[in-house]
């Protein structure tokens, strides 16, 4: 069987490393591919829905893992319900998926982000319709600190942090984050995809055999 991970681009640094490790460790014999969608689609919900459903309608894989937070679109549960070959996540957003319970017990004045936010910040702003740099800074000005969950995949240099600070004008911290938390969620999703496919395959085989039995039943009575 083949599995495709349809992912928000914000996960690219960690997911590429995880899939590379999974391949080296030979955890699965199935073909696992990934397609990244632009980071920032979540700022335009109509666009996010259109791009995701268009991809789902055209992907031919046996199973699709949709790597988005469950709350990246408030109508996910509604417009994804008819895609029977789809595997999703319960985590609300990319921060929960990657950082999870490692976030500090603080109020809403701290914004947690993943490394992909830093690396793809300019890509994000293309979708935010910010008028200028001051508009961007105003959007982040409600936070006392921005905390980057450092998974160890990217090297955050002083120049990178300073450049990011110049764009948002909010103090930036990095917090060590265990990438294995995210890796375990990806492995679990792949296992769910495989198990779901096996169940549907067995069921289809049973129905096929049952139909043959029903077709041949009149002839067995004659004999």
Shape: elongated
Q: What is the helix/strand order?
A: EHEHEHEHEHHHEHEH
Our count of domains comes out at 1
Report the span from N to C terminus. 41 Å
**Mean pLDDT level:** 88
Please state the CA-atom Rg, rounded to the nearest Å: 22 Å
Tell me the total number of β-strands: 7
Main sheet record: 4 strands, parallel
Q: Helix/strand/pairing class, anyone?
A: alpha/beta
Low-confidence stretches: none
The number of helical elements comes to 9
What report would you give on this structure?
The structure is a single chain. The chain is built from nine helices and seven strands. α1 (12-25) crosses α9. With 223 residues, the chain is an alpha/beta fold. The strands form two sheets. Strands 2-1-3-4 form a four-stranded parallel β-sheet, with helices on both faces. A three-stranded parallel β-sheet has the order 5-6-7. β3, α3 and β4 (86-87) form a beta-alpha-beta unit. It has one domain.
Topology diagram in text:
Layout: E1 2-8, H1 12-25, E2 31-37, H2 45-58, E3 63-67, H3 76-79, E4 86-87, H4 94-98, E5 110-113, H5 115-119, H6 121-128, H7 133-140, E6 145-150, H8 158-168, E7 172-176, H9 179-222
Parallel strand pairs: 1-2, 1-3, 3-4, 5-6, 6-7
């Amino acid at each position: 069987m083949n599995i495709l991970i349809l992912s928000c681009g914000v996960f690219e640094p960690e997911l590429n490393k995880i899939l590379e490790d999974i391949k080296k460790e030979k955890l699965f014999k199935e073909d696992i591919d990934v397609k990244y969608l632009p980071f920032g689609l979540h700022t335009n919900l109509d666009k996010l829905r259109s791009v995701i459903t268009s991809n789902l309608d055209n992907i031919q894989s046996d199973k699709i893992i949709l790597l988005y937070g469950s709350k990246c679109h408030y109508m996910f549960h509604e417009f994804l319900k008819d895609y029977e070959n789809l595997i999703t996540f319960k985590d609300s957003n990319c921060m929960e998926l990657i950082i999870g319970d490692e976030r500090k017990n603080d109020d809403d004045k701290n914004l947690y982000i993943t490394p992909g936010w830093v690396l793809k910040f300019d890509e994000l702003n293309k979708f935010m319709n910010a008028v200028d740099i001051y508009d961007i800074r105003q959007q982040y000005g409600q936070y006392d600190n921005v905390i980057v969950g450092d998974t160890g995949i990217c090297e955050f240099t002083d120049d990178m942090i300073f450049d990011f600070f110049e764009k948002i004008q909010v103090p930036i911290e990095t917090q060590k984050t265990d990438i294995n938390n995210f890796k375990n969620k990806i492995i679990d999703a792949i296992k769910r995809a495989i198990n779901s496919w096996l169940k549907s395959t067995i069921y289809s085989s049973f129905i096929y055999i049952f139909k043959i039995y029903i077709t041949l039943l009149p002839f067995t009575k004659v004999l």
